[in-house]
Amino acid sequence: VNPAGLKLKPHTATDFIGHHFSHLVLEEDLQRVSQHFSAARAGTPQRFEARVRDEGEKLLTMDISNLPIMVNGEIVGVFGIARDISEQKHFERQLSFNASHDRLTGLLNRVSLEDQLILDCHISRRRKRRLAVMCIDLDGFKSINDSIGHYFGDQVLIEVAQRMTQQVRPGDTIVRMGGDEFIVLLPDLLRDEDVVPVAERLMASIAKPYCIQGMDLHVSASVGITLSDGHIEQPMQLIQQADMAMYKAKQQGRNNFQWYTSDLNQRVCEHASLRNDLQKAIETQSFRLHYQPQIDARTGRVVGIEALLRWEHLEKGFISPAVFVPVAEDSGQIIPLSLWVLDTACAQLRQLGEQGVTGISMAVNISPMHFQRGQFVECIQTVLSKHGLSAGQLELEITESLLLHNVEQAIDTLHQVKALGVRIALDDFGTGFSSLSYLKRLPIDKIKIDRSFIQEIATDHHDAAITQGIISMAHHLSLTVVAEGVETASQVDFLKGSRCDIFQGYYFAKPMPYAEIEAFLSQPASHP
Ligand code: C2E
Ligand code: CA
Ligand code: CA
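A: This is the predicted complex of the input protein with calcium ion.
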């Protein structure tokens, strides 16, 4: 052991003697070091790196050579030389960070983009998720840089990078391409649409004022988006697509986002034209309600009907509410529509009563937007008294999405509705977060098990078990269970065996216009 070796612990030469080298080496490296040592003992010179601790417990990286000591052609030991290369290692790490990161913002730079993109394509493919690539270019940045100076420009860029970083999830990547252009990679999206809120958040966070040395500066962002499932031969094409979409955003007057994907583009257009047509349809009242019977599992009698909205488009024919209701929710058109549904359903229930059909309730689907608006409870009261109905004849179908925003307020409104005597059913149960703890707090009367479970109950053990679980849990909470989308006799058998209370589905009857439901309800019960 030479003097340099003594800087390592143990401190004195005698401490070394009779000790195994494992004292010095970091535990994680020990096995590897032992292998090299054995190889040297077997006659092959070795050179390797290992980490050791010095007497101050500082971690050092050593470049070590192990050479066999030969005496008369026989190996009698191993000679070791270690060189401290810690500083060199530190520089290497620094260099590789500098090579892959942007000096100003600390984000990844364009050199790292391709590797990261390839990695993200893999991730999306493997997890069967969507990958979104966004190209973000700042609007109005150049004028800051040119008119008040690079210092201010740099500060804005640093802050833009920080704000953007706060808006994405840990697995997402932000790359500074140079200048005021960034690429954002989101490899783990459930649906295409999920990129929209992220884009909006990024844009909103960038658009907030920047206060630098007492000056308020403003920039905004033009965003181009492209989507992929990760199956792409040349991932860098995604960057080009996002870039093209970004230019479109610039042309559209900046501070907005645009899609690259042609079919998404088409969808955005369709959305806009549907919104137009909806407006006309609302003005000309070209909606109808169809009614679908709900059947008591024990008696086979119709105990209620659900009102389902129908729109016959002039050119496109019938459009499913599953398509146009979300559009109407986006645009706010759902409010007049919802009021019309409620009013019409109540008027027709009254009319049924006048035709001698009694003892059935009317279920109306309520959009969260309508529910959350002020005066919802008053609105229900008004419509009931307008048509001379008792509260017990009306049932509101709500979904869990109602609870996504102000939970306490939603629960409070539900209690008020319930206090009127109106019943509440939780629709599409099993598809949302279906949290049991919420369920206990909600003043509901019924749950409707989603069609997707019912479809498979006769063939899929898993769905069968879930359905049975939901039913027994609901009964524990004194809730009535409705199975929706019942289409076959074997589903009916299974559901009866599982003590489901009410059936709804094509097996019994499809949704039908008023005239037909009136005739249907006037017949005596004829179902098993
Ligand atoms: P939902 O409330 O779950 O309505 C049940 C849907 O399942 C209806 O589709 C109905 O026609 C369909 N259905 C009923 N039985 C069967 C069956 O046995 N098999 C199959 N495959 N389907 C069956 P629809 O009428 O297209 O409505 C779709 C969704 O649109 C509704 O789902 C509801 O979320 C929404 N919606 C309908 N009317 C209104 C409304 O007046 N207001 C609001 N806010 N939403 C509505
Ligand atoms: Ca419903
Ligand atoms: Ca449903």
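The longest strand covers residues 59-71. Residues 101-261 form a domain with the Alpha-Beta Plaits fold (CATH 3.30.70.270).
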